[in-house]
User: Which sequence fits this backbone?
């Protein structure tokens, strides 16, 4: 067991190092801008006051090295700074937009992050059981008409851009048959059932995109497994097909299936961006795209780091779970 | 309520499936096919039959009830008709391939599934359209023709115009022409980007695999770090910076986008070509060539590369799809290919609100779906071909 | 005479490739009585394993029984329902697979997999079956029988797993066991032990068995009668002693004759002659672990030195040191009395050219995308500087030398050749450099016996014509006997013994050499009995190695 623990700790450390490196990459990318950052953003029409305000806000009068650690220190304390839009306002008018407190990046992101996690959670709750079941079924009845039609369907689903799936769903489930609303305006204090109803279309879109990929990978993993000599041995021992699957295939299929799930949930993180824009869903993805368009660097940085962190975390989970479910590592020699 | 009906139907079908198996056993005097059929399989057969019957029923529903178009039926009929036309076209194309061409190509077509034939046909059509867009398109991509919001279909009674078979957009540009030029722009840019990604990732990957040592370590770790950021997110971040850099020149933004996506994608290509390279490097014939005293260039280009074509080609197809979808998504989000270049992602975004008219004017809703469908069709086609190639190469190993 | 236990009539099996069904087995009959052991032998592709599985009514994916019947105790397994077959499999017919390591489920303990059959078939209770399992482990002479079953498969060695699998097959006391090459993946010293325990247990419980193997000497020990197969057809069948002493068919005779090839001894090396290759006190390491310890031997002109040992003994590592792929940590290599640079990168073209290599797996040794002409032509051009017509003439000459028709083979790809032909191309590529010395790394072990013999004869002929020196790496002592002049025996990275072949096959030896030599099965059906008597039951295989 000690060996297993050591491997897991190693992976965790590796994950932290990766996250650190990613933060450096993001920071360097942002600071690779030529000339003065503030002027580049504000353009030539900016007043000198505004430029000065921005410089102070972003700490541009310090060198890059210090700036990085100030930023990283802030991030570690949960402080991602102030959105540029706010800072601009403050620079031009000497006060915050609301006139009271400064709205920080965290204030902007937190509620939206919660919404996005809700959306991702709903999609995953539908997609994972569906994909695993279909994957196992297609693997068991491989090369049947069912398997072939599923193959064509899933390939088509994988190939279609998320917005195509989204609009087709809108067409059939919102416009032609008004089952779900086509716009997902969600606000705090909403009832859960109403919230679920409004989240349904974006969630279904994500589900379709992810299920196809997850199902194909599950199918491949199971087929690979069913071809192994110990499954043949189990059948030659005269065991019932059910027992072969449950007792012999499943314990070994766990690791690959878990990996498939985690990888696809990570993929979901990317898909969320487009889907949120289509359905005007108030999540972090939409905030990210909006901030990209107005070049609100602090928000973009923060969103990017959060996306990367979730992505790394999911991959790490896949890694660790597959290690834990490997009998060779669980019972060392 | 609908849900309840579905559940009841499913339960009824359980009984039907049981009866179906019993009947089959009785009718064939217990042949192994029915005797050893699990219940789940019988259920699957029954379910499939019911779905087919339902589909046929829906297909023959009236398209108009009391002058009101039944949009659901119309869309279903269109979908089925398109599907059938594609299937027939693919079948004819495969037939053609089997009788024309060299011995090798004929043999290839003989073992080809219909999906792959379809894929190749579509890719050829897209390539032709993209290359000769200027000659095919009736109007220019930026040409504003005065008449805005003309409905697709070319039927004057339904607010259409035969001069613009697919209608015009909000500012009066011909949608058909823009779709055709979109092939040139979107596909062309994606193709260039993918080539660039392969040039960078492929050469570095092979170098890392052949040389190993610190170079391999350095490159692999760098790629690991870059791949820890999701591709679309990273692209969005870099494009933000690039737009600040480019200022107001929109063509520069497009160039930066190509470079950014190529670099991000080259990490994936690096991984694959390194893995492929490592598999080849351990082969005895590489050892033999090394011991003969061959140089690095000969090793990579003459010994290794010819054996990596198959997986690299398949990967090229997949990467192309990925790049193509990324660019389409970026354009859809408004930060990809910049106007005035016609491009499918941007077109979908601009035309999206027409979908809401689908219930009473099914034709109108077609425009955005056509642009999105054009994207999907190409990626589906490429994926079909790649799937077949991968299947073939894995089949040969067994 | 009563009805046989297993009766196969007119069995035809087809396999699918490229959407069509091609025959694999073309009508085979078989009768097996209770308690009888039949050996099935044949080269690769003969369909032995397919028949073995079919006698359980089982076909792998893409294979189907097209005709014939497999009647086991009155039940035709070809037409029986899946449920009826399941009731027999595991309970009355059991299977022992070639690779025990892959055939045990990695997720469950050995004993749990052992008791699964009896419990599921309602033959006995779990606790009884467990006790019986431990008893079987004891009878099969597994170390720590009380405890070994509670381990996971990856915690147990290959030879032990193979015996545990035999125990598992025995769990329901079946009437018939199919052994599918159970010892092929094992080293010779381990093989003995598994063979002995399988034979004992089959005799003790009076179980009928089908023993599938490609090794004649093994089948001679195990079977009451032998069936010879060739490409899905039966060649002949007879009881073991008759078959060994008086084979009827040409094919069988040629199989038997392979073992008798032995080239005449060469005159001894003149004292004071400079060896072509001299390995001087070589110690080499992978990472920080030494895998070779102070290895020294000489190879003289026109002679063959066989380097013998089991897997992990350091034979191939020695070859890597000579070629310079693995620079030795201590010591060096001399060629014609001159020291070679340790790393191959520092050797010049002439030095590289003089030592060539032929590989075990002809499949990976030839670039699949290059034609035969390109493969052989490259060293001709690279070393000899020949181009155009001269190059073509040289390649043609080389192809003739390895007995392949030049015009027919020049433009072919490796995938269009058989295993033996590929190996010949490997030889031609080595010859193209016009070397003095060739390393042959297990060149015959992936080939069928008849083909292997052809390769050995070709190598011998080339040596006589060109005065080549060979270093012949092998684990097969029959090959050593056939071709070598001198023998180097290695174990765990150390040279245990070396000398002239004639001396090596005469006692007295180092105890390990002795063990290795005596563990190689011989065609004599009494060989295993005699050996066991000589060694005593507790002193075979692993046990004997451990004692040294």
Assistant:
């Amino acid at each position: 067991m000690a060996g297993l623990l050591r491997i897991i700790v190693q992976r965790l450390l590796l994950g932290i190092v990766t996250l650190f490196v990613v933060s450096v990459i993001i920071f360097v990318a942002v600071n690779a801008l030529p000339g003065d950052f503030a002027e580049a953003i504000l353009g030539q029409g900016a007043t000198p006051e505004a430029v000065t305000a921005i410089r102070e806000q972003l700490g541009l009068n310090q060198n890059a090295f210090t700036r990085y650690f100030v930023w990283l220190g802030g991030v570690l304390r949960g402080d991602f700074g102030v959105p540029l839009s706010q800072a601009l306002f403050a620079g031009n008018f000497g006060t915050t937009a609301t006139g009271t407190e400064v709205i920080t990046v965290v204030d902007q992101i937190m509620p939206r992050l919660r919404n996005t996690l809700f959306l991702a959670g709903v999609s995953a709750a539908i997609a994972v059981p569906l994909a695993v079941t279909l994957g196992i079924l297609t693997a068991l009845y491989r090369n049947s008409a069912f398997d072939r039609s599923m193959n064509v369907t899933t390939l088509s689903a994988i190939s279609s851009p998320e917005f195509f799936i989204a609009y087709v769903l809108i067409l059939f489930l919102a416009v032609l048959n008004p089952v779900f609303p086509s716009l997902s305006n969600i606000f705090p204090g909403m009832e859960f059932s109403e919230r679920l109803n409004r989240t349904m279309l974006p969630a279904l879109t994500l589900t379709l995109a992810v299920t196809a990929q997850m199902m194909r990978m599950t199918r491949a993993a199971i087929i690979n497994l069913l071809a192994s000599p110990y499954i043949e041995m189990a059948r030659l021992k005269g065991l019932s097909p059910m027992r072969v699957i449950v007792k012999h295939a499943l314990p070994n299929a766990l690791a690959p299936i878990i990996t498939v799930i985690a990888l696809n949930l990570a993929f979901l993180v990317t898909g969320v961006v487009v889907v949120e824009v289509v359905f005007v869903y108030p999540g972090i993805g939409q905030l990210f795209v909006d901030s990209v368009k107005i070049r609100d660097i602090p928000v973009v940085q923060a969103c990017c780091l959060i996306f990367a962190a979730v992505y790394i975390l999911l991959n790490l989970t896949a890694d660790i779970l597959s290690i834990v479910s490997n009998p060779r590592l669980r019972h060392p020699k | 309520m609908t849900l309840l009906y579905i559940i009841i139907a499913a339960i009824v079908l359980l009984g039907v499936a049981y009866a179906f198996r019993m009947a089959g056993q009785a009718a064939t005097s217990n042949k192994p096919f029915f005797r050893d059929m699990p219940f789940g399989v019988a259920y699957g057969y029954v379910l499939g039959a019911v779905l087919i019957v339902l589909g046929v029923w829906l297909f023959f529903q009236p398209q108009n009830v009391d002058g009101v178009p039944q949009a659901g039926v119309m869309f279903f009929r269109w979908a089925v008709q398109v599907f059938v036309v594609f299937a027939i076209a693919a079948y004819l194309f495969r037939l053609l391939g089997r009788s024309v061409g060299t011995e090798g190509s004929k043999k290839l077509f003989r073992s080809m599934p219909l999906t792959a034939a379809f894929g190749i046909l579509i890719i050829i059509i897209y390539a032709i359209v993209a290359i000769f867009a200027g000659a095919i398109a009736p109007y220019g991509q930026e040409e504003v023709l005065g008449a805005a919001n003309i409905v697709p279909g070319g039927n004057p009674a339904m607010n259409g115009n035969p001069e613009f078979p697919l209608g015009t957009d909000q500012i009066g540009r011909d949608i058909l022409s823009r779709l055709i030029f979109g092939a040139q722009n979107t596909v062309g840019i994606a193709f260039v980007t993918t080539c660039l990604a392969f040039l960078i990732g492929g050469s570095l990957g092979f170098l890392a695999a052949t040389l190993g040592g610190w170079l391999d370590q350095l490159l692999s770790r760098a790629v690991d770090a870059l791949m820890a950021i999701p591709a679309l997110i990273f692209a969005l971040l870099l494009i933000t910076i690039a737009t600040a850099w480019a200022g107001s020149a929109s063509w520069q933004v497009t160039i930066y986008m190509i470079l950014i996506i190529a670099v991000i994608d080259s990490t994936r290509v690096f991984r694959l070509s390194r893995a492929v390279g490592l598999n080849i490097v351990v082969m005895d014939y590489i050892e033999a060539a090394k011991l003969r005293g061959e140089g690095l260039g000969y090793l990579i280009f003459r010994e290794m590369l010819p054996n990596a074509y198959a997986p690299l080609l398949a990967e090229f197809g997949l990467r192309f799809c990925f790049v193509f979808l990324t660019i389409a998504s970026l354009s859809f989000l408004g930060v990809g290919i910049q106007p005035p270049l016609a491009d499918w992602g941007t077109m979908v975004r601009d035309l999206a609100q027409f979908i809401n008219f689908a219930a009473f004017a099914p034709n109108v809703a077609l425009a955005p779906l056509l642009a999105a469908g054009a994207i999907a069709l190409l990626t589906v086609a490429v994926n079909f071909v790649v799937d077949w190639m991968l299947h073939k190469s894995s089949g040969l190993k067994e | 005479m009563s009805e046989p236990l297993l009766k196969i009539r007119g069995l035809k099996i087809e396999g699918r490739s490229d959407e069509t069904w091609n025959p694999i087995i073309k009508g085979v009959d078989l009768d097996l009585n209770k308690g009888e052991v039949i050996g099935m032998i044949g080269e690769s592709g003969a369909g032995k394993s397919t028949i073995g599985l079919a006698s359980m009514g089982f076909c792998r994916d893409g294979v189907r029984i097209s005709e014939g019947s497999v009647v086991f105790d009155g039940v035709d397994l070809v037409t029986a329902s899946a449920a009826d077959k399941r009731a027999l499999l595991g309970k009355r017919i059991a299977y022992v697979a070639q690779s025990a390591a892959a055939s045990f489920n990695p997720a469950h303990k050995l004993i749990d997999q052992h008791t699964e059959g009896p419990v599921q078939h309602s033959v006995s209770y779990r606790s009884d079956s467990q006790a019986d399992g431990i008893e079987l482990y004891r009878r099969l002479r597994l170390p720590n029988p009380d405890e070994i079953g509670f381990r996971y498969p990856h915690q147990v060695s290959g030879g032990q797993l193979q015996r545990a699998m035999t125990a598992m097959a025995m769990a329901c006391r079946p009437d018939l066991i199919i052994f599918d090459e159970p010892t092929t993946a094992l080293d010779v010293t381990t093989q003995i032990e598994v063979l002995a325990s399988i034979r004992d247990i089959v005799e003790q419980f009076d179980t009928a068995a089908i023993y599938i193997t490609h090794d004649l000497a093994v089948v001679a020990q195990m079977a009451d009668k032998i069936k010879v197969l060739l490409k899905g057809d039966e060649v002949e069948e007879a009881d073991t002693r008759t078959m060994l002493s008086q084979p009827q068919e040409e094919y069988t005779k040629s199989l038997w004759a392979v073992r008798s090839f032995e080239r005449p001894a060469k005159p001894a090396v003149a004292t004071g002659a400079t060896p072509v290759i001299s390995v001087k006190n070589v110690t080499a390491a992978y990472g920080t672990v030494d895998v070779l310890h102070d290895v020294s031997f000489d190879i003289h002109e026109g002679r063959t030195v066989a380097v013998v040992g089991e897997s992990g003994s350091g034979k191939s590592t020695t070859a890597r040191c000579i070629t310079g792929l693995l620079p030795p940590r201590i010591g060096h290599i001399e060629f014609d009395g001159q020291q070679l640079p340790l790393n191959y990168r520092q050797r010049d073209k002439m030095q590289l050219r003089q030592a060539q290599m032929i590989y075990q797996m002809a499949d990976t040794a030839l670039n699949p995308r290059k034609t035969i002409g390109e493969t052989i032509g490259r060293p001709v051009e690279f070393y000899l500087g020949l181009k155009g017509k001269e190059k073509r003439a040289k390649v043609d000459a080389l192809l003739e030398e390895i007995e392949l028709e030049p015009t027919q083979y020049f433009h072919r790809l490796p995938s269009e050749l058989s295993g033996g032909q590929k190996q010949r191309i490997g030889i031609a590529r080595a010859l193209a450099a016009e070397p003095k010395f060739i390393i042959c790394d297990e060149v015959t072990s992936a080939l069928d016996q008849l083909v292997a013999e052809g390769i050995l004869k070709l190598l011998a002929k080339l040596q006589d014509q060109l005065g080549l020196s060979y270093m012949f790496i092998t684990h097969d002592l029959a090959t050593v006997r056939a071709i070598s002049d001198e023998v180097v025996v290695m174990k765990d990275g150390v040279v245990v013994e070396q000398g002239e072949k004639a001396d090596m096959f005469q006692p007295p030896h180092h105890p390990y050499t002795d063990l290795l030599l005596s563990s190689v099965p011989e065609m004599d059906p009494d060989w295993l009995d005699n050996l066991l008597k000589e060694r005593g039951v507790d002193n075979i295989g692993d046990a004997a190695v451990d004692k040294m």
